[in-house]
Amino acid sequence: MDDKRKTLSRRNSMPPDGVSSWNKYGSQSTRSSKPERLYRVWPGNNRFLCGGRLVLGPDAGSLYLSSFLIGFPAITFCIRMLVRIKEHDPLYGYGVLTAGVILTFMDLLFLYMTSVRDPGIIQRNYNQVCDDVSEASSRELVAGKSDSLKIPRTKDVTINGYTIKVKFCDTCKLYRPPRASHCSICNNCVQRFDHHCPWVGQCIGLRNYRFFIFFISSSTFLCIYVFTFSLINLLRRKRSLVHSMSRDIVSVILVIYCFIAVWFVGGLTLFHFYLMSTNQTTYENFRYRYDKGKNPHNFGVFYNVKQILFTKTPPSAINFREMVLVEDVIIPTTPSENESFSGFRKDSDVEMTQRLTRSGRWVVPSNLQNLDYADIDDKLKKVDNQLEASNDQFLMAPQGQAPAQQRYQVTSRDAAVVTINNRER
Fold first, then answer.
1. Catalytic residue selected from 197, 203, 223, 258
2. What is the rounded distance in angstroms from the CA atom of residue 58 to the CA atom of residue 298?
3. What's the CA gap between 17 and 19, in Å, rounded?
4. 3-class SS at 332?
5. What sign results for the dihedral spanned by CA atoms 99, 105, 108, 111?
């Protein structure tokens, strides 16, 4: 029955001209809905450029700071080499200058490739939240026999003979794949989640971890390169080191700056080389403990490095440029401790449907709009007053006999309530 209902819903909501429906992202739309690009209505906190082709994090503004911290000293070093190239051997001067330009360009390139790529965002699921519930339990829920069914918070998955617990994500409405986690900053579940890097303004995951390794490695090498040749420029002078430092302040500043920076970026590079060789993520290393204390993803240094650096990057799971229908997108609630799968609270007998419009505002369902609640209350108060009057007459009547007016008043109240409800519908 559920499969037929989904097929019928998908058929009725299919828009013309090949525009796909929003159903797989959680909506129930009709032909009258206006199509939009998915990146315009994506519920995460990401920013998008070039029509959804580039995916950035919400703190992408940190790219300006990172670019400045990398580019300014590196470009200063290159300009210094270019201005004073006559003081050195031309072959040495142009060789150092060329290598410095290439390293700076590669470092910034890896920085932006890490930041603007989809890190491995997992597609949200709003349709089949109850897949892991037994068929019998589902039938009881539909029949109204059970109101206490809840989604299990974890379930066991076997990988390479080891049992791993995966958690249910309340936001994305799915069981996270192994090694995935939900980033609270980007508000997305990310495959092979490593961490959210504030320096690149993006999550580091399955699809951009390789470029992150290249970025921090090139940054470390660039720091060592600028530090080494800036110090050589001071030592190449024929006079004393103190005199050379007083005449070449730029090189002194570059030496101090690179000496401090290399400890941070170099330490980060060594740490991630260790994680890569053992096939771990930062999240797993700090917060996760495997069953039996052994990492089921570790197959040796050679295979681990090959898997991360020399394998094809998997395609993105989401096409953010896809045309979807966004009118009257229904956002289902997640069952909590006091809720069942149907989204109703045990102590509530009122059915509420939450709808999200394109502007992002929460609105009242259509069947509850344009109701004159004040007029309904006045009419019900009048009926209550008439009922109280009939009750007084009932107390004064002989025992075993009920006045006809009392029976009429009770019937009138019921009819009034029904009339009001029908009229407002």
1. 197
2. 33
3. 6
4. coil
5. negative
Close Cβ partners of 349 (under 8 Å, ≥ 6 residues apart): none
Contacts of 378 (CB under 8 A, 6+ apart): none
Angle at 185 between CA 182 and CA 191, to 5 degrees: 30
Regarding pTM above 0.70, the answer is no
pLDDT tens, per residue, the chain with 425 residues: 444 444 333 433 344 444 444 444 444 444 446 788 999 999 999 999 999 999 999 998 899 999 999 999 999 999 999 888 877 778 888 999 999 999 999 999 999 999 999 999 999 886 655 444 444 344 444 444 444 456 788 888 888 778 888 899 989 989 999 999 999 999 999 999 999 999 999 999 999 999 999 999 999 999 999 999 999 988 887 777 788 888 889 999 999 999 999 999 999 999 999 999 999 999 998 877 766 668 888 889 999 999 999 999 999 999 999 998 865 344 444 444 444 433 333 333 333 334 344 344 444 445 455 555 556 556 666 656 665 665 555 445 555 454 444 443 444 444 444 444 455 44
For the chain, the residue count is: 425
The verdict on whether 197 is a catalytic residue reads yes
CB atoms within 10 A of CB 275: 19
Domain ranges of the chain: 2-39+319-368, 49-118+206-309, 135-190, 373-424
Tell me how far apart the terminal alpha carbons of the chain are, to the nearest angstrom: 30
Contacts (Cβ under 8 Å, ≥6 apart) of 28: 9, 13, 328, 330
- Tell me how far apart the alpha carbons of residues 254 and 256 are, in angstroms, rounded to a whole number: 6
